[in-house]
Amino acid sequence: MLPPKAAQAARIRALTCLATFGWTGPLELAVATIDHLVRNASQFGWCAGKEIGLRIARTEADDLLIDVTDYRPEFPSFEQAVAGSLGSGLGRVAQYGGAVSWHPHECGVGKTVRAVLRGDPS
């Protein structure tokens, strides 16, 4: 996938999943988070002939797990990116209240960036 098609497809998938899950958190922040993560992966982690992966899940505690996978195993300056020093994508996700982390794949090809958003506590 390449932007903007990747981001558009991710937003549509997000709305469908969130409606199915019945997640109680703020939908607009969830969709914006997915949009930022997919755009970042498309811009910085895309490899020709490979697709970017998107996984959306809801936990029993009503947290929303958003995993975006690309094929670049490194993530230089992750902490600065989350702090917003290197651009707006991950910094915005953190501003939305998302807990952002990443891990390389065991096979050494690619990584997954995860954002966790809390559901409505009421």
Explained architecture:
With 122 residues, this protein is of the alpha+beta class. Helices cover 39% and strands 21% of the residues. Strands 1-2-4-3 form a 4-stranded antiparallel beta sheet, with helices on one face. The model has no long low-confidence stretch (mean pLDDT 83).
Low-confidence stretches: none
Compute the separation of the termini in Å.
Answer: 37 Å
Q: The biggest beta sheet, please? A: 4 strands, antiparallel
Overall mean pLDDT stands at 83
Total count of strands? 4
Structural class label: alpha+beta
How much helix is in the residues? 25-40%
Going across the major beta sheet, what is the strand order?
1-2-4-3
Query: Which of globular, elongated, flat, extended, rod-shaped describes the shape?
Result: globular
Output the helix-strand order: HHEEHHEE
Strand content: 15-25%
What is the count of helical runs? 4
